[in-house]
Amino acid sequence: MSIRSTQRLAEAGLEPSVGRVGDSYDNALAETINGLYKAELIHRQSWKNREAVELATLTWVDWFNHRRLFEPIGHRPPAEAEAAYYEQTTESAMAA
User: Model pTM?
Assistant: First the structure.
């Protein structure tokens, strides 16, 4: 599957978003989010069942994206920063 995917990307003139074998750069963001999720939610309590974990996860993701303030992006929630980015990108494209 990996070889076929790489070939298809090459046919389309695209390069895969992966580094050399053993590089952790591509997975760093995902691992950071997973670590925060586990530390802030999963490991802080015992869970009655899978449904409780699923509901808590949805609540945490909503909070993480829409209410949690991040210093590196101007003390704004990620969803707000993303919306501003796409608005600026659209405005720049329209001006060009």
Answer: 0.64
d(CA 27, CA 18) in angstroms, rounded, equals 9
Q: Which two tokens stand for residue 4?
A: 């076929």
What does each of the 96 residues of the chain score in pLDDT, given as a tens digit?
A: 567 777 777 787 766 665 555 555 557 777 888 999 999 999 999 999 999 999 999 999 999 999 999 999 999 999 999 999 999 988 777 776
Per DSSP, the chain holds a count of helices (H) and strands (E) of 4, 0
